[in-house]
Amino acid sequence: MANAAKFGIKKRSGGINITPFVDVLLVVLVIFILTSNASIPGIQVDLPKASSSVALEKPKTKAITVDNAGQVFLDAYPVTLPELEERLRTEKALTPDFPVIVRGDASVQYAKVVEVLDLLRRIDLNQVGLVTGKAT
């Protein structure tokens, strides 16, 4: 009997081992968090195609969309250029270095997108990206 106590024969305690269950729940939680932040608010437009595109998807990203009629939207809300400038200046006062993406419909007039980009330059926003679709 002395040898049995010496080599560590232990009595098993009762209960359920929940460690594998917690591991699975943590993996499901991580997947849920990653997929819940995968979209940027905005309206659906027909994006022009590019050979490669870089994603700027961040939670605080502001999306400016120009549809095929030339209407400008800020996060799916229609705005005029003076309203857009006012809202972006307000956001810049709160968060100085937030990213902005510009989404323009493939059939939109180029001048309207340039007006939006010029407005972003006047406000002095540095993190600006143009969204394109993938070339087929």
Automatic annotation (TrEMBL):
Keyword tags: Cell inner membrane, Cell membrane, Membrane, Protein transport, Transmembrane, Transmembrane helix, Transport
Transmembrane segments: 21-40
A GO MF label: transmembrane transporter activity
Subcellular location: Cell inner membrane; Cell membrane
Keyword Transport set for record: yes
Keyword Membrane: yes
Main location: membrane
Any single GO CC term annotated in Swiss-Prot or TrEMBL for this entry: plasma membrane
Gene3D superfamilies: 3.30.420.270
A single GO BP: protein transport
Membrane topology: Single-pass type II membrane protein
Biological function: Involved in the TonB-dependent energy-dependent transport of various receptor-bound substrates.
Subunit structure: The accessory proteins ExbB and ExbD seem to form a complex with TonB.
PANTHER family the record matches: BIOPOLYMER TRANSPORT PROTEIN EXBD (PTHR30558:SF12), EXBD MEMBRANE COMPONENT OF PMF-DRIVEN MACROMOLECULE IMPORT SYSTEM (PTHR30558)
Family to which the UniProt record says this protein belongs: Belongs to the ExbD/TolR family.
Protein name: Transporter ExbD
Organism, as annotated: Oxalicibacterium flavum
Gene: exbD2
